Structure formats: structure tokens, C-alpha cells
Amino acid sequence: MSDLNARTPSGSDVIQRTDPKPAFSENLLGQMLQRANLQAAWKRVRANKGGAGIDGMTIDEFPAWAQSGGWKKAMTDLKTGQYKPSPVRRIEIDKPDGSKRQLRIPTVIDRVIQQAIAQVLTPIFDPGFSNNSFGFRPGRNGQQAIKQVQRIIKEERRFAVDVDLSKFFDQVDHTLLMTHLGYRVKDKRLLRLTKRHLCAGIMENQRYVESREGVPQGGPLSPLLANIMLDPLDKELDKRGHKFARNADDFTILVKSLRAGEAVSALQDQPISTRLDQLLWNSQWLSTLCRSGSMDQA
């Protein structure tokens, strides 16, 4: 590809990774458009594979599109603020419990751009996230969350409350999310571009549907945005002294008694300090004691 695979040129026309400006500077769009950042974004999208968006372009077809001038046009539009993301393609996949999970698949072009944005925003937000958060974070994973739960169980906290933020990705409030982003991101151009991805719309059965809320689960930027929204909830649980592990929108909170567990479940009836009460809680008690990862009758 002409721009994504080319060697990064020297000179004032390119912002180098050694730029001494802080990550929250007003030139985040420039950092996002660095050739090296875009190259890394493309490699990540290519490695993750995935299907085509509404334009039908596959991962394998993207290089030819870029070389034919498509990427140059996209870069011009991004720099001038004219770029408009395409609507996402909605599909459904089966979940282990028999229900359906809705995915919203951006085009390959938009996935590269979203990944490039995520690579700039992650160093700004991720270091401040709770140590009890494991999903969709660099160097962290679900297996680490399981190990943390096992460690907490050994502290005689054998009652578990499983919490699932039902349909979280579909219900994220755009205004609230953009407010959280705006606390740390001062580049209004990057904020506008992010908002456009959120509001790009959905194509379902050849019909356009506005996306007034939610983040497209299936896009590279969505996991980071979800963690930004859920971090205040992590901090609220930390402040209340709860022992827990969160993996994306699933929590396991461990307590020492049934009474304490009921108190945790009652959180769903209280307003979380950052208005996360807008989300639907679905708490289910395990009627068993967890002991070293096994289930013994209570």
C-alpha cells in the first residue's frame, strides 16, 4: 500500500513518536495520523481478520484499494475534517447460553481508522483504570480475572455475586461517553471523528437505522470506549471496599456472607455516582459456595 507500507519520511510534515508533547495535547489527530501509527493499526486489523463491512471490501482487497488512491482520499478527508464513517453491518452470533449476541461490523477502512484512534487514546486512559479490570486491556485477559477470583476466595470470601450489564454495548449513552472523553482529550477534531463513528448508523436487511446510543461491538475502538464508561463503576466498587474482578461487562464480586451479598445486589437499586444506573443490571445469586474454583453445596 502506498501510504501504509511506505517508510516514514523525515521532516516537519510528519509527527514523530518522539514528539515531546503530552498525550493529552490538542494535536491528537496529528498523532493518530502518523504513518507509523497507521501502519501498526493496519497490521492489527489484518491480524484480527474479520468479515467485510457494508461496502463488501475484505481484508485481502484492502491493499489494492489503498494503492489505487482510496487511502490517499481518506487521509485528505481525515485531515480536513470531511471524513464520514460508513454505517456498520449488523450480524448475530450464537452465545454459549443459546441467546444471540449482536455484532456491528465496520468496514475495513473504518476498522483501520478506529484502531489508529484506539492506539492514541489507550495510553491516555488505560493507566488510570482500576487494577480490578481485566477485559480488553493491554497485558490483561480473562484468565487473569479468574486467578484474581481464586485469590479472593482464599480470603474466605466464598459467596459470589455474578453481575452482567445486560446489553451494555447497545445502551451506552453517547453524550455521557463524549463527556468522559472530553475530560482527557482536548483535540476537538479527534472528538468529532470519534462521535461520527458512534453515530455512523446501522445497515440491517438493506435498511438504514440511526445509532443514537451504544458502541459498535465488533469495532476496534469499542472495547476502550466501554472500559472508559465502566471505569467509574470500578472506582465506585473500589471505594465501597468490594473485592471483585471485571472482565469487560461481566463482574464477579465476592463477599463473606449471604447478607453481604444481598447488600451488593442492592447496588442495582442505587444511583451509581456517575449515572451508570442508566444501564440494566442483571444480578444472579450463586446458591453455592466457591472453594478453590469448585462448587460445594452451601
Strand proportion: 15-25%
The low-confidence runs, each spanning 5 or more residues with pLDDT under 50, are 6-23, 270-298
Q: Structural class, from helix and strand content? A: alpha+beta
What's the number of extended β-strand segments?
10
| Main sheet overview | 4 strands, mixed
Report the average pLDDT across residues.
80
Helix content: 40-55%
Strand order of the largest sheet: 2-1-4-5
- Tell the overall outline: globular
Number of helical runs? 10
> Could you tell me the radius of gyration in angstroms?
21 Å
Elements, N to C (H/E): HHHEEHHEHHHEEHEEHEEE
Q: How would you explain this protein's 3D organization?
A:
The chain is α+β, with helices and mostly antiparallel strands. It contains ten helices and ten strands. It has helices spanning 28-32, 35-48, 62-80, 108-125, 142-153, 168-171, 174-184, 188-198, 222-239, 258-265, and strands at residues 88-94, 100-105, 159-166, 202-204, 207-209, 243-247, 250-255, 280-285, 288-291, 294-297. β9 and β10 (294-297) form a beta hairpin. It is globular, with a radius of gyration of 21 Å.
List the helices and strands and how they pair.
Elements: H1 28-32, H2 35-48, H3 62-80, E1 88-94, E2 100-105, H4 108-125, H5 142-153, E3 159-166, H6 168-171, H7 174-184, H8 188-198, E4 202-204, E5 207-209, H9 222-239, E6 243-247, E7 250-255, H10 258-265, E8 280-285, E9 288-291, E10 294-297
Parallel strand pairs: 1-4
Antiparallel strand pairs: 1-2, 3-7, 3-8, 4-5, 6-7, 9-10
Helix pairs in contact: 2-4, 7-8
